[in-house]
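Task 17 of the worksheet. Students: predict the tertiary structure of the chain below and write it out as structure tokens. Keep your answer in the requested format; marks are given for formatting as well as content.
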Amino acid sequence: MQLYCDESGGVGSGVMLLAAVTVADADSLLTHIRAVMGLRGELKGSRITMAERAFVVEAFARAGGRAIVAQADIAALSGPSGPPADHHVYGALLNHAVAAWLPTTDIARDSAPDSPAAAQRVDVTIDDGRYDALRNLAMRDSVQKSVGKWGSARLADSRRCAGVQFADVIANSHFHVALDTREAARIDALFQPLWQAGIIRRLPINDI
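Model answer:
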């Protein structure tokens, strides 16, 4: 399974979310979406209209896309010394979201690469645009440790990775709902069937 990860929000906005999504043939799906929308440049949740968001999300779901969205309420994580560092929250969200996708059985974890259980292999692609190179590498290495010998983790430029662009739209959509923005009610209505069907799962993070 290919997982693609991107975030929205941050400590300064009071909420941070990270979407870990999987969708078959993300490149072909994005090519189709770009052609229909007449899109030039990167697909980003912060740059699309409500109608375009609905089209992208529904196309993602029809293509078999799935997502887990980890969410942190910064006030709930803050202590006497103030809020946690932005990168600490991001790292916790990233690791929790990826871990929620990982097989939990010992058979899967201990299987040989060519065994049937190895079909549960998880390869993770993480957007490299939020922090400096050294911090991004540390995030990648932490995820690599989580997935172990039966998966991989890598960084990618979102402009060149279709799957990360879908993760961006999913994360940004949940950011609107979390902050109750002007578009929140319409986005909530768009996502309600996906939440109820388990196509997109929400994962509150209460500790880092």
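Marker's comment: Residues 162-179 form the longest helix (18 residues). The radius of gyration is 17 Å.
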